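ARCHIVE RECORD
Type: protein–small molecule complex
Small molecule: S-adenosyl-L-homocysteine
Source of inputs: curated submission
Record status: active
Notes field left blank by submitter.
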Amino acid sequence: MSEPVHLTGLTGDELRAFARGLGEPDYRARQIFAALHRRRLRSFDEMTDLPKELRATLAERARASTLAVESRYISADGTRRYLMKTHDGLPVETVFIPEERRDTICFSSQSGCPLQCSFCLTAKLGLLRTLTAGEIVEQIVVALNDAYGVGVRAPRGTNLVAMGAGEPMLAYDSLLKALRVMAAEDGLHIVPNRVTVSTAGLAPKIRELAREPDRPHLAVSLAAPTDELRDELMPINKRWNLDELLAACKEFEKSLKPGERFTFEYVMLDGVNDREEHARQLANLLNRHRLSAKVNLIPHNPAEGLPYQPSPPERVERFKEILERKGVRAFVRRPRGRDIYAACGQLAARTQANNLSAALVHQLTR
Ligand code: SAH
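STRUCTURE (tokenized, with ligand):
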């Protein structure tokens, strides 16, 4: 018998084709789509508006969900981290970040990551596997259900960021498909304009994304202002160096429509990339390429196994000042969920929170 189909990763059209294959009318496909995405049900048993026989057939031929939630960790700042397992036993992590204006869900595009950035804990896992569209959509469903209740709409909508484990540009097809599925009005209705994809710098994929008609926002991780330092921190720089990367970014920037954002990220590592000279080099580099994107400074999130410490706040402020003096807009990002290994670069399938929040560790029942 063939592998069960993961219905959560299918577009409305694909679901209709699947239903027709079972001899079912199109309205059944619409019902199933709404059950999976608008009502956010994770099993066919709960879809009691479907005939019992159809539910039995679906259970045999398909899956409504494939990720099993293993644990949930809650930070003192309200951030939640979910550790899940794929059907083939690989870890997937998702982070829910409550915010004043609109909550954010940070999802993973791969289990592990092949890129080996020296400051990121996920690199220690290596690449386990790229996630499917269905596995991406499911992460959002799990986080939304836990935050608001099953099928309950987020009161102010939700922002999504592809900044969890993995390199989204290496999961390009799954990612864009997941975004199409999530944009559906009769489903999650999270449009690409609410989504930011962060990349370590795959120049050809940045150019490809620039040509997509309906695309998410882009963030590019720089971490260093010179090739020499960036080669050391982010080995992908040896494949596409700063000039090639920034030329691709320029092409992306040229294609921006009103309201589209484009950001650079710069992780601040104590004594490594945070000197005044680095700030000047960074500003000159962006100015030379005539890039007007803003820079988000991210204080390093430390973890055992990583050889760095975060830059002290005064140094981050000084760095920001120098950028601004040279006409580069800069912002300092506040770390969230550090105490539960939920912050940027801390996702490595840790099965405990640290001592501070161990008391807050809960097992999820659904
Ligand atoms: N692979 C993608 C997306 C995941 S990382 C990328 O590289 O952009 C998301 C952001 O977290 C990146 O900007 C990355 O540079 C940053 N980051 C990684 N490890 C970090 C750490 N330990 N502390 C702070 N930021 C980190």
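CURATOR ANNOTATION: The first strand starts at residue 5 and ends at 6.
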